[in-house]
Amino acid sequence: MNHALPWLFPVPVRRSRFRAGNPDHARFNVEVAHDRLDAFAFAPSPDPEVLHYDLQTQITGNARGRLGSGRGGVWAGHYLKGVGRTPAAANWNEPSDLYHASGHLSVGSALRERTITTALQARGLGHAIVPCVAVLLRSLNRTESEAIAGGQSSSRPAFAAADANHAALTAKPADFARMSNVAFALDHFVNEPQAIGTLFLEIDRFLRPPEARDKVDGEPRAIAEAMAAAYHRGLANFHGFARAGLFWLYLESNVALDGRFLDLETPLYFGGPFVGIALSKIDGVQERELIGFEEFGFTRQWRTFVHWLLAHLRFLQSPLVVESREARSFLRSLEREITRHVTREPWMTDDDAVLNAALDNLAPALGLDARDRTRLGRLARAAFGSWMYGRPPRLPDAGWVPFLDSPAAPTPRHRTFQQAPFSPAHLTAEGTSFATTLTALGQETDPRRLLRSLASH
Question: Which of 5, 60, 107, 193 ranks highest by number of CB atoms within 10 Å?
Answer without folding.
Answer: 107
